[in-house]
Write a structure and sequence with these properties.
The chain has four domains: 31 residues; 128 residues, no CATH class; 108 residues, no CATH class; 82 residues, no CATH class. The N and C termini lie far apart (76 Å). The chain has a 16-stranded mixed β-sheet. The protein is mainly β.
């Protein structure tokens, strides 16, 4: 009788189970390459100009291509440059699809709309080869649109990158899959994205980002910033107002904020520096590294369930606060000039400088380290 030890049966069965799946994947990849090689591709360029009279807004709905919107101070019309691409299984299908691939423009009140139209998929059935052909078939339009710089912009994109620059107005952007780049927006910018990265800079007013999967970078924001993310990191720099960041899975780096900061990371680290307002930073599973300048009556709260907290205090005129530190199963270490009211292995309370504000630090199972800069 054969004796089975440890995970022997699993090892014996693993490759026989995996080999058919690997073989099927290789067939798909090989077939995709060959279908792509045999397919027909057609490209066309189209330019259209829409005269501006009382319009101040541009709306673009592009399902499958890149969208670029650029503001021009000397523009007196909206110029649309469309790069159309079709790839299909044969030349006849490609030509037919190109005739149906296009866009229309409509004017309604103060808004000019650009809506793209794609050829319908005429192939029926759900066979394996039909699926392969659909994967390889493509029909999309890349847009470059020049508008007067005073315009507002609204973009709806299903699958494609979006780039908007040099607009004095505001921006609203809704996308499913694609990266977003914003720069030089005078008004408020709103971005809602399912999958893709966001890079936003030089925003004159507020910036709001809501995304499911992707990284977000925001810099040089005149107003407030809010970022909500499910999976991805966030970097925020130089904010004129308040900053509010909530991440499910990802790290936060925030440097430079003239207002208050509220940061919540369920699974990720938080790093904060150069904040003039109050800081409320909490993480369920991650470390917190913060530099504070506690002046005035502001209240700061730093809380980590499973992670360490490192805090450095800048000293300057008017510096002072009430410090309260509690840890469940961690240690407390520090180098700080403080008048102690209470101290133990798990608790530290006292007054630093002239008092005034309050700093509360709590961990469930993490170490707390405190230091002072400019002693």
């Amino acid at each position: 009788m054969r004796k089975i030890v440890g995970y022997g049966p699993i090892r014996e069965c693993r490759w026989p189970i995996m080999l058919p799946a690997v073989a099927a994947l290789l067939v798909v990849l090989w077939t995709t390459q060959n279908v792509h090689a045999r397919s027909s591709t057609l490209e066309e360029q189209e330019t259209r100009t829409v005269k501006v009279e009382t319009e101040t807004k541009i709306y673009v709905k592009n399902a499958r291509g890149k969208t670029i919107i650029v503001g021009r101070k000397d523009a007196i019309a909206v110029t649309i440059r469309a790069s159309k691409t079709v790839r299909a299984r044969d030349a006849k299908t490609t030509a037919a699809w190109m005739k149906e691939l296009g866009f229309t423009t409509e004017t309604d009140g103060d808004q000019i709309s650009v809506v793209l139209h794609h050829p319908p998929r005429t192939e029926e059935g759900g066979s394996f080869w039909t699926l392969v052909r659909r994967i390889n078939d493509r029909a999309y339009i890349d847009l470059t649109i020049e508008v007067p710089s005073a315009f507002d912009a609204k973009v709806s994109s299903t699958s494609g990158d979006v780039q908007i620059t040099s607009l004095e107005g505001g921006v609203k952007l809704f996308g499913s899959s694609g990266d977003v780049f914003l720069k030089g927006i005078g008004g408020t910018a709103l971005v809602e994205l399912s999958s893709g990265d966001v890079d936003a800079g030089a925003i004159g007013k507020d910036l709001h980002i809501r995304m499911s999967s992707g990284d977000a970078v925001a810099r040089d924001i005149g107003g407030s910033v809010s970022v909500q993310g499910t999976s991805g990191d966030a970097e925020v720099y130089d904010v004129g107002g308040d900053a509010t960041v909530e991440l499910s899975s990802g790290d936060l780096t925030l440097e430079g904020c003239r207002g208050n900061v509220s940061a919540l990371a369920y699974s990720g680290n938080i790093g904060i520096d150069d904040v003039e307002g109050a800081v409320d930073a909490r993480t369920a599973s991650g470390d917190i590294d913060v530099t504070l300048t506690p002046v005035g009556a502001k209240e700061h709260l730093l809380e980590s369930s499973s992670g360490d907290v490192d805090v450095a205090f800048h000293t300057r005129e008017g510096y002072g606060f009430l410090l309260e530190v509690d840890t469940g199963s961690g240690s407390i270490e520090g180098d700080l000039d403080i008048k102690l009211d209470e101290i133990s292995r798990k608790t530290l309370k006292g007054v630093v400088g002239k008092g005034g504000g309050r700093v509360s630090i709590e961990t469930a199972s993490g170490d707390i380290r405190i230091s002072q800069i400019g002693k």
